Amino acid sequence: MECGGKRSATPLWPRRNKAVARAKAVSRSACHRTPEWGYGTRLLRDLERRAFLSGIRTLTLETPRRRPLTLEFYRKHGYQETGRGIYGAVETVLFGKILVGQRDA
User: Fold this and answer.
1) 98: which strand partners?
2) What's the fold here for domain 2-98?
3) The whole model's pTM is what?
4) Half-sphere exposure of 53 (CA within 13 A, CB side)
5) What does the pLDDT look like over 29-72, one tens digit per residue?
6) Taking the mean position of all CA atoms in its chain, how far away is CA 26?
7) Secondary structure (DSSP) of 36-96
């Protein structure tokens, strides 16, 4: 996603195989919030689109279990819980989503 000539999402996705990757990090720029999409939605949609255009068809991520708004955000955007994990001393939830028909917009 472009915003004033600056990229607003910088995905880092180590591939698990040719079509599966794990989202590791995104960053945001000073893009304006739109009425229908907040920053998080815009970043996530851009990450998914760029992953799809790179040949990735399944995206996975991990987030702390004690962040109910974050868990609900990913569920709202079609991510399914695939398991639980531990990152250091933090309990985490693993999510996955099959990317279908992401456009180059």
Assistant:
1) 58
2) Aminopeptidase (3.40.630)
3) 0.67
4) 11
5) 444 444 456 888 988 999 999 989 999 999 999 999 999 999 99
6) 8
7) S--HHHHHHHHHHHHHHHTT--EEEEEEETT-HHHHHHHHHTT-EEEEEEEETTEEEEEEE
